[in-house]
Amino acid sequence: MDERSRRKILDVLRVLSESEKPLGGTRIAHALALAGKDMSQRTIRYYLSLTDTEGLTEQVGRRGRRLTEMGSRELETAYVADKVGFVAARAEALIFGMDYKLRQGRGRVVVNMSTLDRADLPRAKEVMRRVFQAGYSLGERLLIGEPGQRMGNFTPQPNEVVVATVCSVSVNGVALAEGMPMTNRFGGLLLVSEHRPVRFTQIINYDGTTLDPLEIFIKGQMTSVQRAAETGEGVIGASFREIPAPAAEKARRLAARLERSGLGGILLVGRPGQPLLEVPLPPGRVGMVVRGGLNPLAAVEEAGIATSNRAFGQLFPFEQLRSYREVLK
Amino acid sequence: MDERSRRKILDVLRVLSESEKPLGGTRIAHALALAGKDMSQRTIRYYLSLTDTEGLTEQVGRRGRRLTEMGSRELETAYVADKVGFVAARAEALIFGMDYKLRQGRGRVVVNMSTLDRADLPRAKEVMRRVFQAGYSLGERLLIGEPGQRMGNFTPQPNEVVVATVCSVSVNGVALAEGMPMTNRFGGLLLVSEHRPVRFTQIINYDGTTLDPLEIFIKGQMTSVQRAAETGEGVIGASFREIPAPAAEKARRLAARLERSGLGGILLVGRPGQPLLEVPLPPGRVGMVVRGGLNPLAAVEEAGIATSNRAFGQLFPFEQLRSYREVLK
DNA sequence: GCTGGATGCGGCAATATTGCCGTGTTCATT
DNA sequence: AATGAACACGGCAATATTGCCGCATCCAGC
Lengths: 329, 329
What we know:
The structure is a homodimer. By secondary structure, chain A is α+β, with helices and mostly antiparallel strands. Chain A has 2 domains: 3-81, Winged helix-like DNA-binding domain superfamily/Winged helix DNA-binding domain (Arc Repressor Mutant, subunit A, Orthogonal Bundle); 89-327, Alpha-Beta Plaits (2-Layer Sandwich). Helices cover 38% and strands 26% of the residues of chain A. Chain A contains 12 helices and 12 strands. Chain A has helices at 3-17, 25-34, 41-54, 69-81, 86-97, 121-134, 169-177, 213-219, 225-231, 248-260, 295-302, 324-327; strands at 57-59, 65-67, 108-117, 141-145, 160-166, 183-193, 196-205, 234-244, 266-269, 285-291, 307-317, 322-323. In chain A, the strands form 3 sheets. A 5-stranded antiparallel beta sheet of chain A has the order 11-3-5-4-12. In chain A, strands 7-6-8-10-9 form a 5-stranded antiparallel beta sheet. In chain A, strands 1-2 form a two-stranded antiparallel sheet. In chain A, strand 1 and strand 2 (65-67) form a beta hairpin. In chain A, helix 1 (3-17) crosses helix 4, helix 6 (121-134) packs across helix 11 (295-302) and helix 8 runs parallel beside helix 11 (295-302). Chain A binds chain B through residues 4, 14-15, 18, 31, 33-36, 38, 83-86, 88-90, 92-93, 95-97, 176-177, 179-181, 185-186, 200, 203, 205, 207, 244-247, 275, 278-280, 282-285, and chain B through 4, 14-15, 18, 31, 33-36, 38, 83-86, 88-90, 92-93, 95-97, 176-177, 179-181, 185-186, 200, 203, 205, 207, 244-247, 275, 278-280, 282-285. Chain B binds a DNA duplex through helix 2 and helix 3.
């Protein structure tokens, strides 16, 4: 049984779980078509015969199959490992909750929350400062919360400090407010050479994971943000977005405005119909690349300092964040 | 060779066509992964061996395959039949070009352009009036252009009249202006009973066709809008949209405001996590159903009057459209 | 209770994919 | 020129899908 099939089988079981009555191949195929998934009736029956064997489903006369107890449980646990669209949903909810006004430079944006040991803070500051300075962060603001201070609904433990950095989906929120629908394509690791983006070396689609892709890469020590900041050669976190082609010009202007507002993070905006960094695009769309908000923390982790990161942490008033020049003195 | 494979092969050829250098399985698989398509290297080589046989590709030593002349031509013609995402792109461009202001009730919206024989107009008016009256249209406005009048960049031929109706993607535009990103899921035929939507009987995903789904169904005489308007039982054109779950409440309010502005068309707004009309939704999203803007024309076609329809025709100032009560007197 | 149509089932066989693997080439470097 | 990594190729065999088909049930309506 391969991965792909497993997933398709889960799709089938999911349909069954949403129906009280038993269903057969035809109706299931119908339901899946509505979900945008094509599968022949025969194939569905083929899967069902497999799940029958595994005891996940059972026949009810000729009226169709239904899930067994075991099947329901299987489905629930599988959900955990396969929360398709979960990150995407959370990101969207946060984006929708933003009320940042670009003109006024205030309002809530989406921030990442990271924690690290208080004792490591001085060294971490130094590392992060270099990353901000080299322009590999998202915007130039952040906030460090010491124990006793509250940061949104987050309170540092006694020996911890909390670092809030702007999350890259904040860019989507600003764009949306400007009437520009921006969709997340994937997050990944971006190879940088001479301080210029070259290509993505690893990608994770947003709708297949539970974590923000960058969190995973940070934990896996797969980045080299420090080196990138110092020599211009390295691998940083970044994500790929898409907008409608007619919005491309506006996006370029937006990038400049964001830069001036301390929210700069748009690395590249492509051209209609042209692949961007080798990533192909559907007709009528243009791609863009946005720096990852967690890059400074990735650098910290690279420096051997343990961090714990939570992307898409929460909404936080932008005006309460401070310039890194001030905070990381 | 089945349909599915054909499409996958085209994906592979497309990658080849975008590269000047010959490529082999590994790199092609890489490129496809960036496009969100998974295919094993072996499978790609398998396809390539097939296309080699057909003369669409050829080997270049061990450096990989490249497209032959024939291959390029094949790809171009295939594009015509398989303009994936083409409608979606056009719709998006138009949406982005809208400047309709809900508060003021003016500005450009997306309209469909239909033409019919001038001689049929009186009868067509009667038919359309019933549809508007029964509330199966999108909004309550339209415009009929006689020869000599210009309608946007459209001029009726001597014996024709042009009918402009509001296109359902205008709703997306209004929503976008309110900060609510709405995506088109599919268009299709909606079964109606007792004037209430029951379920979709046919669907066509937007990104697999060149035409607006409803155009196809109208041509195929698959609707029964007249019957729906008169008895409450029938099949009308409608489309399925998706919005982020947190936007659901706002969408409901928007539906009411649109109604008051003569742009009513939102039939249903679902609940988070709940399937809507049996259509399953990803976590964190809610579905909605919007009436098709071409329904009045579908009814005309049903009445045996030939029409020609162009959905997503162009942008047109809403304030220049008139209430059906006035136009279809 | 009878009947037509819709739906369900699974055997069989033809395709379609994909993993495994041994053999060559290409290419950037040393 | 020598070398090793990265790729390319295609045979073979194991899976995964899917079309075709004959037959069993279910269900709504008469």
